[in-house]
């Protein structure tokens, strides 16, 4: 087992998640596309354009080997992503919802084929920076990250139009599982004795329990121990929103039950599973 924990294979879930998204988008009224979302400055149309950008970017880069946009000067990764994502969303404001829905349906199957051809244990096409910056990511974590991206943006659209969420545990559970793999990186600044364990427990039908243990000078995903040094308990809705900064660490702490080492517990509530 690597520092990231056991393999998660989310590949069978992409068609189901996409079907739920397309059904949602197909039922929106014209005015729904201009409703604001939690993403600053973006409405529903912009978020859907961003999902389409993700489809096209992964097919272009991972399948076709096309480099695409490049960093500008000393631009950081978050700044680069904010710039190119914003440029794409702005450009697609001239494209109709109907065309975007058609493109998502057309390209989605191609993306499924791309994932199906991947060796889950091989190296990632794109490392997952929120899980580690000094160790290469496995392909399964890269693919899992993409699944969480699509699921979260669907939820943001649902929130914006007050549509029931895609909270089916079969779809949501793997999102929480992938997000939890950020635990070791989240705790990286907290030095503790060998064998110290921290446990995160997420309640709800899609929830679960995850632990990270200090081994060989770093935190690693590990089986849950009977007596963790710190334990954080929070609901599934709070956890996914925390991981994507739909709620702040301070808000998450207000909603969580934290016991044990205060610094370790507080560190858990800073978990971030997006590039920001």
TrEMBL record:
Keywords: Isomerase, Pyruvate. Residues 16-157 form the Mycothiol-dependent maleylpyruvate isomerase metal-binding domain. GO terms for molecular function: isomerase activity; metal ion binding. InterPro entries: DinB/YfiT-like (IPR034660), Maleyloyr_isom (IPR017517), MDMPI_metal-binding (IPR024344). This is Maleylpyruvate isomerase family mycothiol-dependent enzyme. It holds the Pfam family MDMPI_N. NCBIfam families: maleylpyruvate isomerase family mycothiol-dependent enzyme. The lineage of its organism: Bacteria, Bacillati, Actinomycetota, Actinomycetes, Streptosporangiales. Coiled coil: none annotated. Residues 192-228 are annotated as: Disordered. It comes from the Bacteria.
